[in-house]
Amino acid sequence: MWFSVKHVSSTDWKPDMTPEEAAGVIERFIDGPGDSIEWCDFAETRQKDLRIEGYRKRCDKLSPLVNRPGEMDATAVAELRTIIKELRSMTNVETLKL
Q1: Cα(47)–Cα(98) distance, integer angstroms
Q2: What secondary structure letter does DSSP report for 48?
Q3: Alpha-carbon distance 53 to 33, whole Å?
Q4: Residue 24: how many CB atoms within 10 A of its CB?
Q5: Do 53 and 17 form a contact (C-beta atoms < 8 A)?
């Protein structure tokens, strides 16, 4: 191959993301400029934690509405913002348990 594409991200794509890591990926994508490679890596990487996996699946279903040319679908963005809040509330509950 005559060129190489290397994606540099602050989050390694791993199957055991924390709720905060997942929320951060979603937030960076929708608040832009959206990194569609980071977004796709997240949306397509299965998670061991079934709670995070459920949110990842929701994001994957919304992906065609937000990861496309032109503007993102407003309803899909609103749902992603709800997912961010839910993931962050999981983080807050885990912090309180410590």
Answers
A1: 23
A2: S
A3: 25
A4: 19
A5: no
Contacts of 16 (CB under 8 A, 6+ apart): 47, 48, 49
CB 53 within 8 A of CB 69: no
Q: State the burial class of residue 86 (Cβ atoms within 10 Å of its Cβ: 0-12, 13-18, 19+).
A: middle
In tens digits, the chain (98 residues) has pLDDT values of 443 344 444 445 788 999 999 999 999 999 987 678 889 999 999 999 999 999 999 999 999 999 999 999 999 999 999 999 999 999 766 555 55
Contacts 24+ apart (CB under 8 A), 57-61: 58/83, 59/26, 59/83
Cα within 13 Å of Cα(90), Cβ side: 17
- Structure tokens that stand for 10 in this block: 């602050």
